[in-house]
Sequence to fold (324 residues):
Amino acid sequence: MASKKSLKYPIKRHQSFHLLREDTNSTDSVISTTFGNFINAIIYGDAESTLRALPATSVNSIVTSPPYYQQRDYQAPLQIGGEASPDAYVQKMSAVFRECYRVLTDDGTLWLNLGDKYKDGRLLGMPWRVAIALQDSGWILRSDIIWHKTNAMPASVKNRPTTDHEYVFMFSKSENYFYNADAIREPHITFTEKSQMKGGRGHFGRRGGTPEQGKNHGNPNLHNARWDQAFHPLGRNKRTVWQIPLSKFPEAHFAVFPEKLVETCILAGTKTNGVVLDPFIGSGTTAIVAQRLGRRFVGIDCSEHYCSMAKKRLEKTQLSLALL
Fold:
């Protein structure tokens, strides 16, 4: 058998599978292996097959943006996205995320970014088709987040609004899961010019001065002017509309997964030194952000070109890596 030391990057698909099958005598369809070999690694292989080789409950969170339906040709034989029908795409995605469910810890979360598709002038609703299919397969949908792309490209359409958002779905595997709300809190707006409270600011610090008696009925901290007790010192709970601009990476020739979006998901879904999986690693953004935040990563992609691109990006960050 070939040893890891004899391999040169990028590894071929058969070499990837060979490595994943080392140290196992399993004969069933799910191959178990030593997970430590793949920490901080970019694995060249299709998502579903490669995930089958990873051990169960081995990653703490999954942050990913799979290829959208009929959006782009990545010139990879086993790529997802070019299916002939929406149903075929949903079935393929469901198969991949069944394996993701298996490798995720019981208290882990999945953060899934998906864009939609128009066909013959009709919006297909692809993100929600996938989300509902994942619900049907056992995932618990905890939140649907709107990623508002503040620098979205203009469109020439005249018979509908220009699309400037995508979805980020937050799933959990169980009712009890890790979620660090404090790590992603956002600034309070009550004390800023963006506040929508009626009555101006004359009620601040005044007993009984809160104008929204109905809304805040039963909150003595507000009505007794104890604003310091009514508002969390780290900020308000994260809202479900995230205003994040698109990101660019010259070698990708198109917009890539924004680091700020990935950062928010990783901070909320993992602890320091946790393991983040991206089964569609692409140009490597999830891996880069994970290491910057003190987390470990596992990246998978079926495109040799993108595996090489991710490796180059990771090298440029001058981080300590253990790429296969």
